[in-house]
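Mods, move this if it's the wrong board.
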Amino acid sequence: MRRAGSKIVSRETLRGLLSEAKRFGRRVVFANGCFDTLHVGHVRYLTGAKREGDVLVVGVNADASVHRLKGPGRPILGQQARAELVAALRDVDYVVIFSEPTVETLLEELRPDVHAKGTASLPIASAFM
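Not the wrong board. Structure tokens:
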């Protein structure tokens, strides 16, 4: 199993990794969230997301984004710590930190096959209709 730190990658690196995965016919699933206080619900969500494909990429909201979404005193853990906790999960293949207020730009950039959010998993074409 790969070390958690090696799973945290830049957007540029991730684009190349996903292009290669798709070239070999692997189905890419994207999940995202703040993961400020990692709990069993997060683990179940990511485990379910992994079942939707071959490669699971998790977008972790940057600190400023978490603060905007969750309010004063948040995040509790910094973005690097949250990314490392998520990356430590066996089902997670890659983690990328994003600073935009919503994930749409990152989805358009990465073009995963499936966007798993909470209990819903949508083929990416459906997510933008």
